[in-house]
Amino acid sequence: MDTLLQQLINGLTLGAVYALVALGYTMVYGIIGLINFAHGEVVMIGTMVAFTVIVSLAGSGMPPLLILGIGLLVAVVACMVLGWGLERVAYRPLRHAPRLTPLITAIGMSIVLQNIAMIIWGRNYITFPPMIDKQIYEFAGASFTNVQVAIVVLAALVMIGLTYLVQRTRMGMAMRATAQNQHVALLMGVDIDRVIAMAFIIGSALGALAGCMVGSYYEIAHYQMGFMLGLKAFTAAVLGGIGNMAGAMAGGLLLGIIEALGAGYIGDLTGNFLGSHYQDIFAFMVLIVVLMFRPSGLFGERTGDRA
Amino acid sequence: MNGPSTKHPYWRQHWLGLMLVVGVLLAVPFVAALGGQAWVRIANFAILYVFLALGLNIVVGYAGLLDLGYVAFYAVGAYCYALLASPHFGIHLPFWVILPCGAALACLFGVLLGAPTLKLRGDYLAIVTLGFGEIIRIFMNNLNAPINITNGAQGITLIDPVRIGDFSFARTSTVFGIAISGPQKYYFLLVALAALVIVVNIRLQNSRIGRAWQAIREDEVAAKACGINTRNIKLLAFAMGASFGGIAGGVFAAMQGFVSPESFSLMESITILAMVVLGGMGHIPGVILGAILLTGLPEALRYGIEPLQKAVFGRMIIDPESLRMLVFGLALVLVMRFRPAGLWPSSLRRRELAEATD
């Protein structure tokens, strides 16, 4: 029982991070139909920038929470600029190109960002400085830290804010209109370029936030961390129905929990035949099974049969 | 059978070009050997990638199914060869027996993956194939306990080279007075296999199946309405692409003498896809060009960047390995920016005109 609760708590934390990253994928996909492969790298750059800021301010005598806040803010701003730049430089010129062209560009940008990060921050693991005094709480045999609480609460707040932005503001309305039909939205006076840029900027900001969360949760960062994280988050977005924001949130949480439960129980289930190093296959197994029965994801709307 | 001259005016029109290509292909391993056997190996890899890219071209270029896990089939073929021709299990079957086995096994995997997932739309299919590729890699990485099947991350070593009777591909031998080294023998084997896959690609392109694929790529609903069994035809594309991947894997294992899960990462799938798209999807010469360029470019950069940095700055400022990948990524971005349809795209218009004059 305590394993179950423990894994649920860990899964919720991980899932909150996945959900934030998945939102970045899904917003861009929903509006321009592009799998932004470089998004995982944006998350990684966010982590790295936050790390650099925090380390350089660590000796300044400021309160740790303030330092953490500044690091987070700088990372978010840096990633917003990066996301905007990516869209402007790499994707915008290709808006009317064949479908696979921007995908290759995204892959190219991902390689470029990864190697820039390696040149700047080196190829070794970086220890993320713990800024919050870690406190461990016990609850019904399971334990969790204040870092985990902060991650889940912050992610929930951001997701509520984003839902408000998309459902209640003019910008959000423009975004939904563009996602439905670009040409008609254009006729209604929506500035498509701005909406698409906004999707990238908001997605990157969420990614930076998620990156900082991963950094402070695992207390470690690496120039290749964005790859697997991005892959999992993209899986989460597809699981929920790509292009659907509620789906990305649900898919992220679900994926995190499934992974944590899988890692916790796989040994018992298979009589120790398969160990917890198979953790990574759960995400993909679940994805394949779900898509077999619901080809547009859990919350995706049925779309045409276009390959 | 009609003579080639009436059915294929292509051969007659382009005999000079074809002779030139054959001449160059014959000369490459000997010219490359002047710079050392390492260059012959690079040429071998270029051709292996031509093979892989053309296999993937069937799936992505012809049928329009975005496959991001193609490397899984390559891995299946490679491991099939490695397990059946190495001291790992003590089995030493000959190359020509295993190669079809590898192709068949990869084909089976292709159908296993394809059957339940082919009703998915483009990008959903992409992520499922990607996931499948990762699953295969993770299994290869971990299937060393409790029963040691794949030897985990260490991989399988001492794989038998290709051997035909006493003629081993691992050592130098003299044929008609010319010394031919191991890598050079593999070169000719690879060229022969690549020629085979090119012929298959060309023949498929204009066959009933090829046209069905094209119809599905352009509009699946319309294709279905025309009476094409889209499910089976798509499955066929998957199975066919997978078998080519399996064959390439077998040759890779024999040539390297060593396989490990590291060779079959997602990055490999992506590189092969980049070759197809960068060269010009669905266009055979374009795909070949893409494969050769994307194999050659990183190697050329490997040899070019170090001296360049030393000449300009007097010392190594940036790690050459990451600079190499950086340039590679930038090249992808720039080519896509300025030639969105690929470096050498097929001209639909040209084909329509050619059909009109036929």
What is the fold's blueprint, element by element?
The complex is a heterodimer of chains A (307) and B (358).
Chain A: H1 2-32, H2 39-57, H3 64-91, H4 100-121, E1 126-127, E2 136-139, E3 142-145, H5 146-168, H6 170-180, H7 182-187, H8 192-218, E4 220-221, H9 225-240, H10 245-269, H11 279-293
Antiparallel strand pairs in A: 1-4, 2-3
Helix pairs in contact in A: 1-5, 1-8, 1-9, 1-10, 2-3, 2-4, 2-8, 2-9, 3-8, 5-6, 5-8, 6-8, 9-10, 9-11, 10-11
Chain B: H1 4-7, H2 9-13, H3 15-34, H4 37-62, H5 71-84, E1 85-86, E2 91-92, H6 95-117, H7 122-142, E3 163-164, E4 167-168, E5 173-175, E6 178-180, H8 182-205, H9 208-218, H10 220-225, H11 230-256, H12 266-279, H13 284-313, H14 320-338, H15 348-357
Antiparallel strand pairs in B: 1-2, 3-4, 5-6
List keywords for this structure.
heterodimer, A: 307 residues, mainly alpha, ABC transporter involved in vitamin B12 uptake, BtuC, globular, B: mainly alpha, two-stranded antiparallel sheet, 71% helix, 4% strand
Architecture overview:
The complex is a heterodimer of chains A (307) and B (358). Chain A is mainly alpha-helical and 307 residues long. Chain A has one domain (2-126, 139-293): ABC transporter involved in vitamin B12 uptake, BtuC. Chain A is built from eleven helices and four strands. In chain A, the strands form two sheets. A two-stranded antiparallel sheet of chain A has the order 1-4. In chain A, strand 2 and strand 3 (142-145) form a beta hairpin. The longest helix of chain A has 31 residues, at 2-32. Chain A is globular, with a radius of gyration of 19 Å. Chain B is mainly α. Chain B has helices spanning 4-7, 9-13, 15-34, 37-62, 71-84, 95-117, 122-142, 182-205, 208-218, 220-225, 230-256, 266-279, 284-313, 320-338, 348-357, and strands at residues 85-86, 91-92, 163-164, 167-168, 173-175, 178-180. The chains are: A mainly alpha (307), B mainly alpha (358). Chains A and B meet through helix 4, helix 9 and helix 11 of A and helix 7, helix 10, helix 12 and helix 14 of B.
